[in-house]
Amino acid sequence: MSSTARRQLSSAPLLDAIAGRTPTRTPVWFMRQAGRSLPEYRQVREGIGMLDSCFMPELLAEITLQPVRRHDVDAAILFSDIVVPLKAAGVNVDIVAGRGPVMETPVRSRADVEALPRLEAPVPGLSEGIAGILGELRDDQVLIGFAGAPFTLASYLIEGGPSKAHQRTKALMHTEPDTWHALMERLVEIVVAFLRQQIEAGIDVMQLFDSWAGYLSAKEYREYVLPHSTQIFSEIEQAGIPRIHFGVTTGELLGDMALAGADVVGVDWRVPLDEAARRIHAAASSKVLQGNLDPAMLFTGEDVLRGEIRRIKEEARRAIEAGHATGHIFNLGHGVLPDTQAEAITKAVALIHEEA
Ligand code: 1CP
After folding, report:
1. What pathway is it annotated to (predicted)?
2. Ligand 1 contacts CB of residue 102 (under 6 A)
3. Most buried among 91, 111, 117, 270, using CB within 10 Å?
């Protein structure tokens, strides 16, 4: 894999934190920092479908950069979606406003798995969009690319859309393990192709979102999911960019998720960072932590917010001092809620930078 456009960033706080150096300020970015919380996003997206916008290079670059300009975050996250590579491969998927990804035909049998298209051509607009973003970022700001992990993608394909309990997905893995693993292998190929394209276009860091992994028991995760996520991290290891792994409600899975091979493990707000680091260190090795402010705290005032930020920074410090973690990237425990005030996000970023 050749990375033709890799930037040499010597002063990016986020890369310093990942490398175990002391950053000049606490690096922070927020999952879902682009999107509905920003009036300028609602304006440029008007009349354009969510998925369509992901294939339009100028638009995806503009939307990616909006939160960086407004909030002074230390990273941009590529504006795309976990179902973009499926759509580009030819899967009939749409993103329905207020709901999420919906499949025209769910994948539920071995024949459905065999019929899944492969991602054989570059995703249209993606490389051009990334080039546009990199041209605008300062060299202390990184671009994070991403993909959905195979389990989370499989859930959308099997359930046919967003699901509360993931019951058909779990039923398939337990009743037809061969079909399950065949599906996961196909998704690994698609995810690796999507990430390789982003890496070749010059992303600085990547994050694998296994958003719904927290619905699994540790036993299910180890048997049906971990080998496939591990495969992804190992296939892109040679590219040499830092790798982040994140899921929601994964307190009971942190150790297992850390074994998949990422350098950074994302933690939601349910587990304090020092406790999360203990679990990760006991199962795998010391990692960089990412998290873990509750997105609901962006609806409180400055006093509560400041207190929460102090507590989280203190917990991260304790984890690092104990040798259970090697660094900390500040983030939310999950994405910005759509009705969050943009000003509250800017304020939180400023407090995170200013608090010791
Ligand atoms: O019209 C709109 O604005 C739709 C809302 C929206 C947006 C802004 C969707 C639909 N996707 C996105 C962009 C997106 N998706 C980004 C880039 C923006 C950023 O982070 O700043 C990213 C990283 C994603 C990744 C994504 N999509 C995940 C993993 C992250 C997470 O939140 O856990 C998941 C699970 C999806 C599926 C999805 N796409 C959209 C929605 C509403 C959902 C979730 C649906 C569900 O609850 O199952």
Report:
1. Porphyrin-containing compound metabolism; protoporphyrin-IX biosynthesis; coproporphyrinogen-III from 5-aminolevulinate: step 4/4
2. no
3. 91
- 33 annotated to bind ligand: yes
Closest CA to 38 of 339, 247, 298: 339
- Residue 63 has phi, psi (to 5 degrees) of -65, -35
Q: Which amino acid is at 318?
A: R
pLDDT (tens digit per residue) in 257-299: 999 999 999 999 999 999 999 999 999 999 999 999 999 999 9
Q: In what order do the strands lie in the sheet with 264-266?
A: 75-77, 142-148, 205-209, 243-246, 264-266, 287-293, 325-332
Ligand 1 lined by 97 (C-beta under 6 Å)? yes
> Is residue 115 part of an annotated ligand binding site?
no
User: In 268-341, where does DSSP find H-type helix?
Assistant: 273-283, 302-321
Instruction: Indicate the DSSP class of residue 325.
Output: E
321 Cα–ligand 1 center, Å: 35
- For residue 207, the cross-strand partners are 146, 244
Instruction: Please tell me whether 323 is known to bind a ligand.
Output: no
Provide the whole-model pTM.
Answer: 0.97
Nearest CA owner, ligand 1 atom 38? 100
Distance of CA 31 to the CA centre of its chain: 7
Q: Which CATH class is domain 13-354?
A: alpha beta
User: What number does the ligand 1 atom closest to the CA of 146 have?
Assistant: 23
Find out whether 227 and 253 touch, Cβ atoms under 8 Å.
Answer: no
